[in-house]
């Protein structure tokens, strides 16, 4: 192999046109899924203090947001429900209420827009329970535990309620063992064989979820979620989790969070190249960028595009990100900082 001065890698970086021509990774609006919070009992969008630029939307206003997203080219959303505190209970009964905020929002979007956008719905009971855990707590041998198997029955009913409303994909996020199998069985039994599952196959017990928990009002009232979400010190464990979800019927896989787990995204993609892989650019990652940009410490556009490009470069095919509408607008305006 020739060396300098014959070999000069900078030749391929000389101009922007050359750099664009040989770029290995390209971020497009088609890569983005926009997370949307739908709140019952409000009339106007409610700003989320911990997530500048994000809101909880009443069902009646969700179609306005979707219209704006579609105009910008964002054709996929994921819905999170926020029920009133007085409706929450120990087992998350409101999660499968067909008149709950998510089913109502899905129906409204379908009536207004038909097949677009692609609608994903989060399937987890943490936002619907009085205790804020992703599973049902029980007392066993003197210890308070999250009961895996009884939780599966609730999230299966939740998935069916979302499918009945018109969701394209349900997305179980509670990290319960067997959750994909339980949901697939329930969907198929009710005739929803066409409804897909995007599994939060690799979800870590992360410190980056704080703003989301404030937005969804889903922070646990006791303990933490480390007994069911993954240990941040582990990478190879992700392969085991993905194998199980693939065998149980997952259609799309996910790694969450994204930025601190780029190595895990790469690991999963290399081992499961034939499955679409999503990565969740989570609330803490979003809010850190917003806070630093507000202080004038970073260039928000440049840093956001750099982060999302890194996530895609690591192996993600889809990126769930609160930056989606901003990025779509920047790309439409021709912004390309690289």
TrEMBL record:
Q: Give start-end ranges for the coiled-coil region(s).
A: none
What's the Enzyme Commission number for this chain? 4.2.1.24
Instruction: Give the reactions, separated by semicolons, that this protein catalyses.
Output: 2 5-aminolevulinate = porphobilinogen + 2 H2O + H(+)
Output the Gene3D superfamilies linked to this UniProt entry: Aldolase class I (3.20.20.70)
Q: Which UniProt keywords apply?
A: Heme biosynthesis, Lyase, Porphyrin biosynthesis
Pathway connected to this protein:
Porphyrin-containing compound metabolism; protoporphyrin-IX biosynthesis; coproporphyrinogen-III from 5-aminolevulinate: step 1/4
Keyword Lyase tagged = yes
Quaternary structure per UniProt? Homooctamer.
Task: Tell me its family.
Answer: Belongs to the ALAD family.
The protein's name is Delta-aminolevulinic acid dehydratase
Native organism is Pyrodictium abyssi
